[in-house]
Specification:
Helix content is 38%, strand content 15%. By secondary structure, it is of the alpha/beta class. The chain has an eight-stranded parallel sheet with strand order 3-4-5-6-7-8-9-10. Strands 1-2 form a two-stranded antiparallel sheet. Strand 1 and strand 2 form a beta hairpin. The structure holds nicotinamide-adenine-dinucleotide (NAD). Nicotinamide-adenine-dinucleotide binds next to helix 10.
């Protein structure tokens, strides 16, 4: 049971990754991201999720340095973007991310999307970065079961993490099961359904029982499903609200009611059909 903001999932290579992280997708580069990450760190988050394509790695790195918190106490994820996979510039992209973040070692480096005909060779480059000690863990993002089934027989290092769109409307039961069997930690992006969670009356009803918001119910539901979760906000009160999820536990009945909301419904791009 996850009891505090610093509690960690233990990845398949024994690296520890905090169950709750702070996402910065669509967090504007510059002062907005810088301030949000500073507030997140002051609130107690010790895990930040960025990507080259978010164009805010520099701000994340600066906020971490200025926080005064030892680097090794903060888990940082970034990702290689699709255009670099297609152009064959994965290593250059990695070095650029490291430079922008101002970090020698990245905690987790992910293949951002399963670009057809490119994701296996990209992952093999990540394996080399891992073997060279430049990343503490490697993994994938937006990989469905069939992508993993293609990848696994061709590589040596089992991905530590698969970061996918995951929330009550999209619970991907086959991937949930498969990733557990293979010891690949599932990580939820869009855990608040990119804001659409507010439209689900059940989450408000459940929240009332515990004195919590619909967003807190969703984050707690992730933790109790043993899925790493990385809600995003640039609003200080919400950054704090989203971290205030360690003093209650959803009952088995409430968990089941939320589980029953699955409708295989995405609010963002489909890993089998994306045009970027
Ligand atoms: P999210 O589900 O975290 O929703 C974020 C939005 O929810 C905010 O913009 C805000 O409008 C709203 N919100 C946040 N806290 C709230 C609160 N307490 N009350 C009411 N509304 C609130 O969506 P996301 O940002 O897409 O996903 C989270 C993180 O996942 C991203 O920031 C990014 O780091 C990562 N991500 C990864 C991928 C990928 O392809 N790997 C794709 C999208 C996002």
């Amino acid at each position: 049971m996850v009891k505090s903001i610093t509690d960690c999932a233990v990845l398949n290579n024994r690296v520890k990754m905090p169950w709750l992280g702070f996402g910065v997708f669509l967090s504007p580069p510059g002062d907005t991201t810088y301030r949000s990450v500073r507030i997140a760190l002051e609130t107690g988050y010790r895990h930040i999720d960025t990507a080259k394509i978010y164009e805010n790695e520099e701000d994340v790195g600066r906020a971490i340095r200025d926080s005064g918190i030892p680097r090794e106490e903060i888990f940082v994820t970034t990702k290689v973007w699709n255009s670099d996979m297609r152009a064959g510039t994965v290593r250059q992209a990695f070095d650029l991310s490291r430079k922008k973040l101002g970090m020698d070692v990245i905690d987790l480096y992910l293949v951002h999307w399963p670009v057809p005909d490119k994701y296996v060779e990209t992952y093999k480059i990540l394996e080399k970065l891992y073997q060279e000690g430049k990343v503490r863990a490697i993994g994938v993002s937006n990989f469905l079961v069939h992508h993993l089934e293609t990848l696994l027989p061709q590589v040596e290092v089992v991905p530590t993490v698969d970061q996918v769109e995951w929330h009550p409307w999209l619970q991907l039961p086959d991937l949930y099961q498969f990733s557990r069997e293979k010891k690949i930690q599932l990580e939820a992006w869009g855990p608040l359904i990119q804001g659409h969670g507010a439209e689900i009356p059940l989450l408000h009803e459940i929240g009332k029982k515990y004195g919590k918001s619909w967003a807190q119910v969703l984050i707690r539901w992730d933790l109790q499903r043993e899925v790493v979760t990385i809600p995003k906000s640039n609003t200080p009160s919400r950054i704090k609200e989203n971290a205030d999820v360690f003093d209650f536990e959803l009952s088995a009945e409430d968990m089941a009611a939320i589980n029953a909301l699955d409708q295989n419904k995405r609010v963002a791009a489909d890993p089998d059909n994306f045009d970027f």
